[in-house]
C-alpha cells in the first residue's frame, strides 16, 4: 500500500513538473566547443584569494521571458544578459531596459536561414563569435522577438558594440572542481559567465535553489539551455552559483535561482568568458595596462634584475630607447628557474625567448588553441607552475620578452619580424611593432621589481617587458 502511494505521488509530481516545462534552444556541439580558444592554465596562487561571494545582480537588465515556442535562450544568455552586463559593470551603471542589447539581433545572425519563427535553436559558439564579429545593437533598435525580420540595416549600429574576445573556460572532460574554480575565477576578474547546461525536468520546478532529482544525470544530452552566471556565494547551500534565466520573473526567485557548485559542474558542458573592448577608456579608468614578471629559482629565491636602458643601433629619424631589466649577477649553465607573469588588468600576453643570435622561440601561449587573453589579477607560469627551465650551454645574454597588449597581435608575424629584423633588440621591437609600441616615456617602469604600468592616455597598445639574463 505504501509503495503504491509513493508511486502515485511520484507520478503526480512528474505530471506537475511536465506542465511547467519552459522553452530552451541550445544546440550542443562538442567538436565546435573543443575548437574554441581555451583559457590558459593559471598558477595556483591565482586562485588563492578568491572572494567568498560575488554578485553582479545590480547590473543585470530586467528579467525577460523568451516565450513559449521560441528557442532563443542563446540570444538571451549571450547578448541580452552577458553583453549588457559587460557594459554595465565596466561603467558601474545600474541596469535598465534602455541599456540592454538585442537578443533578436544575435539570434538572427546565427539561426538557420529556414528558421523564420525562432524555433530551431542555436549554438553558443556561434552567438559569442557573432558578438565578436558583428557586435549587437541596443534592445530598442531591434526588440524581441522580431523573428523573420532582417538585421542588415543594423550592422553599422551593432559594430560599435563588439566584444574584444571570448574564450572557453574548460574542456568537456574537466573535473567538477576545475569547472567550479574556473567559473569563480572569471567572476572574480569582473566578468559574468555564459554556460550551456542540461536542464532536466527538475530544473523547471526550481523555487529558490535547484534540487536535481535522482537519475537526472542519466538523461540523454540531446539539447540544453543557455544561462548566465552572475555571481556565487560560498555560504549559500554549501556553495552555489547565482543564475539568471530567460523564463520571466514568475519563474523561481523572480527569474533567478541558485545552483549548487557540484550540481552546476555535473550538468554544465560549456562555459565562456567574454572580454569587453578596452581600447577606448572610460572616465573611471586609471590604468590601461599593468604587469609584472618574476624569475623564480627552483632552489629558492629569485633572479634579481635592475632597470636599464638600451638604445637602438640602427640609424633612423626616430631613435628609440628600450627600458629593460638586467640580472644583477651572472648565472651559469644549468641554472633552473621559471618565469611568472602577472597582469593586473585585462590584456593579451605573449612571451618570447631569445639570445644574441635573435632566434625567437614562442613561450606563451604555450600550445595551439590556448588563448593569449588574460583577465585582471591573473598569473601564468612558464614552463608551468610545477616545472622549471634551465640555462643551456650557450653562454652570453639570454632574453625573456613579454608583450602586454590591449588588443590581439599577429604573433607569428611578429616573431618572424623580430628574427629577420636588423640591429639590436630595441631596433627589432620597433621594426616589428612600429606605432603599436607605447613610447618608453609614457610607461612607468618600476625600480623595485620587474614591472610597469601605463596611463590610459598613452599612445599605442603594446608594452614590452624584457629581462636580460647574464649567462656565463
TrEMBL record:
<feature type="domain" description="Peptidase C1A papain C-terminal">
    <location>
        <begin position="59"/>
        <end position="261"/>
    </location>
</feature>
<feature type="signal peptide">
    <location>
        <begin position="1"/>
        <end position="18"/>
    </location>
</feature>
<dbReference type="GO" id="GO:0008234">
    <property type="term" value="F:cysteine-type peptidase activity"/>
</dbReference>
<keyword id="KW-0732">Signal</keyword>
<dbReference type="InterPro" id="IPR038765">
    <property type="entry name" value="Papain-like_cys_pep_sf"/>
</dbReference>
<protein>
    <recommendedName>
        <fullName>Cysteine protease</fullName>
    </recommendedName>
</protein>
<feature type="domain" description="DUF4384">
    <location>
        <begin position="333"/>
        <end position="408"/>
    </location>
</feature>
<dbReference type="InterPro" id="IPR025493">
    <property type="entry name" value="DUF4384"/>
</dbReference>
<dbReference type="GO" id="GO:0006508">
    <property type="term" value="P:proteolysis"/>
</dbReference>
<dbReference type="Pfam" id="PF00112">
    <property type="entry name" value="Peptidase_C1"/>
</dbReference>
<dbReference type="Pfam" id="PF14326">
    <property type="entry name" value="DUF4384"/>
</dbReference>
<dbReference type="InterPro" id="IPR000668">
    <property type="entry name" value="Peptidase_C1A_C"/>
</dbReference>
